[in-house]
Design brief:
By secondary structure, the protein is α/β, with parallel strands linked by helices. It has two domains: 221 residues, Rossmann fold (3-Layer(aba) Sandwich); 201 residues, FAD/NAD(P)-binding domain (3-Layer(bba) Sandwich). The strands form five sheets. Strands 3-2-1-4-19-18 form a six-stranded mixed β-sheet, sandwiched between helices. The chain has a six-stranded parallel β-sheet with strand order 6-14-7-8-10-9. Strand 18 and strand 19 form a beta hairpin. Helix 1 crosses helix 4 and helix 1 crosses helix 12. The chain is globular, with a radius of gyration of 23 Å. The structure holds NADP nicotinamide-adenine-dinucleotide phosphate (NAP). NADP nicotinamide-adenine-dinucleotide phosphate (NAP) binds next to helix 7.
Length: 439
Amino acid sequence: MPVTIAIVGSGPAGYYTAEAAQKQWGDDVQVDIFDRMPVPYGLIRTGVAPDHQSIKAVARRYEKTALMDNVRFVGNVAIGTDLDIERLRELYDAVVLATGAPDDRKLGLPGEDLDNVFGSAAFVGWYNGHPAHAALDPDLSGRHAVIIGMGNVALDVARILAKSEAEFAGSDIVGHALERLKSSRIERITVLGRRGPHAIAMTPKELGELGQLERARPIVDAADLPVQASDAALEPGRRKSVALVRQYAETEPDQKHADIQIVFDFYASPAELVGKGRISAIRVERTAFDGNELVGTGDFYSIPADLVVSCIGYRTAPIAGVPFDDRLGRFDNEEGRISDGLYCVGWARRGPTGTIGTNRPDGYAIIDRIAADLDAASSSRTAKPGRLGFDLFAGEAGLDVVTFRDWQRIEQAEKAAARDGSPREKFVDIADMIAARGP
Ligand code: NAP
């Protein structure tokens, strides 16, 4: 009897897990990859920045796995809603949750709910055409934007806000976002970091892109820089990022890049979002090192803000019946194992850290673990119905499953609708996606 695996989530963690299962069991495995969306690839489609097409190209590797005979994409099926987790566990030998971390971490500050304040999941989802966020409608008519956090997502958001229309050539930014960005009047983007340059979570390649923009330039106050000799203790990647921060502190202003300033405000901890109905300013407390610890200095100041995007990390969405660690914002697990036959992988296992490639060893490790658990239980293991059982259930429940073949038709329609030079114009509405698969 083949091993039957259900993977929930068709992003990088899901597809690397499917690839690992295929390597582990060859033809003796059936893998069904569920997604609540009718389209695959999760973060690759709606998280990775639209101007980072070379990163998105990894989807071609996932497609190879998707096209294997014993791997299926089961789109438009939400686990926890259309089918509960207990039922799924009855159907498959192992269920692997690869659902990522699609929800925003909250700042927990007064004023967080003011208009034109967004979390990065929502804002990134807006310019990437995620159906849940496509209608976000951010107002970019003010001059001041503030981004909270100094990670790679903060960089993505700053870069997207700063780019000219021409700089989006070749990207798959969705039409509604490009139109709004074209009429943007933002002149100053302040990026707030509560710690100093040595603590930035921005990686060198991505930070370097800020220095290459057509009409914008990063601005760093040299007074914020630690003594150069202290960089030697940093790990190499971070040392490179700090070298770029130092370079930005030395860059002289020039006319060409005068339209938009991207100002790095270090040692700046947000305290309150201020406004009447709509955001107008952000109150910030200056921080400082007190021995080893970073503390508030009691020195507050205010920055004008017409738009705020908080890029402080993500949380996994809980699923009914699955133990959840509320503090860490991910499933409660021990090295990927949640309970008998139930596992998690990727951001749903470890939280929102690492690059897309980090999910590959994660996927392989969870399959090793499942193989060991199945071996240990082999004498008592009973055959599970796997995909036949699911198909029976889907028929009875009237689920409208979207297959990988359907997705290929949807993808063709997106390619056909692309602007000149763009790889695709994404559907941003679930009903439109489903309709595009044809009869
Ligand atoms: P991140 O790397 O964890 O950065 C989060 C930032 O938010 C940090 O600077 C953190 O500062 C700050 N922060 C957290 N809580 C805060 C608070 N309450 N107030 C103020 N600041 C706060 O997260 P991310 O940027 O969301 O990225 C998630 C993962 O995706 C990362 O591994 C990232 O590298 C990856 N990613 C990669 C790419 C790429 O490779 N191109 C693109 C996007 C994302 P502290 O350090 O002080 O906590």
